[in-house]
Specification:
Layout lengths: L2 H7 L10 E5 L4 H12 L3 E6 L2 H9 L7 E4 L5 H15 L4 E4 L15 H28 L2 E6 L12 H18 L6 E8 L5 H14 L3 H10 L9 H12 L10 E4 L8
Parallel strand pairs: 1-2, 1-4, 2-3, 4-5, 5-6, 6-7
Helix pairs in contact: 2-9, 4-5, 5-6, 7-8
Length: 269
């Protein structure tokens, strides 16, 4: 863990003791950092992704004991309910859900065929809806639930050359806001809008945009950095810190919001 963040976050150690968190897309990037932060806060963490080896490596580095891995491909919609129900029978009720998954390739929206929408919408919107519905009864029983969706600043300001991602994130934002009006009073749902974060996803996205536009990868990344007031990439642990804060029992009054962790990139209020 980043030393500065570790020192700053020490106040929250064990504050989530007794709670269980399911973190999707936990094998790398923001998902992995979130699993680390939640574990450091005392939660038992279920890490979820497709790669079993990577998940085992994540668990071996988590603070505390009793963490569990769930190997699942969120695009396999027909298997999600079966696997989540089996997980619940093993670990009991889950109070914290982090909906997170890899985004679609970059490129102009007009170049996408309808088939291009299938995979991204399955692993984001459809999977999030299925898992959320399955976990809500346990949250209601516990009288505490926190659902945090990792989406994008493009919910507010579409980003050039990632049109399919912009469309998907907008759908996730509207889904979340709708649920915020329907869920029990002690279950909150909020969104985190990451900016340019130092992850493998950002690297693959810059390469995808480079191929589509003919720009060099360095030029793509330079343009990104020129638009960010902090003039650097964001550490995934910085984003995870915000996610953990929204997961706390004391954050129950924060509901239906989209919190940007973008280094000030967005110009909207």
């Amino acid at each position: 863990m980043n030393k500065l963040l570790e020192e700053e976050f020490s106040f929250a150690e064990n504050i989530l003791e007794g709670y269980t968190a399911l973190v999707c897309g936990a094998s790398k990037g923001i998902g992995k950092a979130t699993a680390q932060m939640l574990a450091r806060s005392g939660a038992r963490v279920v890490v979820c992704a497709r790669n079993e080896t990577e998940l085992n490596n994540v668990i071996s580095g988590l603070h505390g004991k009793g963490h569990v891995s769930l190997v699942i491909d969120l695009e396999e919609i027909e298997l999600i309910e079966e696997k989540i129900l089996a997980l619940l029978s093993e670990v009991g009720d889950i109070q914290i859900l982090i909906n997170n998954s890899g985004g679609p390739p970059g490129g102009p929206l007009i170049e996408n065929d309808i088939a291009d929408f299938d995979g991204p919408f399955k692993r984001h919107l459809y999977a999030s809806h299925i898992v959320t519905r399955l976990l809500i009864p346990g949250m209601e029983k516990s009288r505490m639930g926190r659902i945090i969706n990792i989406i994008s600043t493009s919910v507010r300001e579409p980003i050039d050359n990632i049109g399919l991602s912009n469309t998907l994130r907008g759908a996730m934002g509207s889904w979340s806001k709708s649920l915020s009006r329907e869920l029990s009073p002690f279950i909150t749902i909020n969104n985190i809008l990451p900016g340019f974060t130092d992850t493998d996803r950002l690297s693959s996205l810059s390469e995808s945009i480079s191929k589509k536009t003919g720009k060099e990868v360095d030029e793509v990344r330079r343009e990104w950095m020129n638009s960010v007031p902090i003039q650097r990439l964001i550490d995934p642990l910085e984003t995870a810190n915000a996610i953990t804060w929204l997961s706390l029992p004391s954050s129950g009054a924060i509901r239906g919001v989209s919190l940007a962790v973008d280094g000030g990139r967005m110009r909207s209020i």
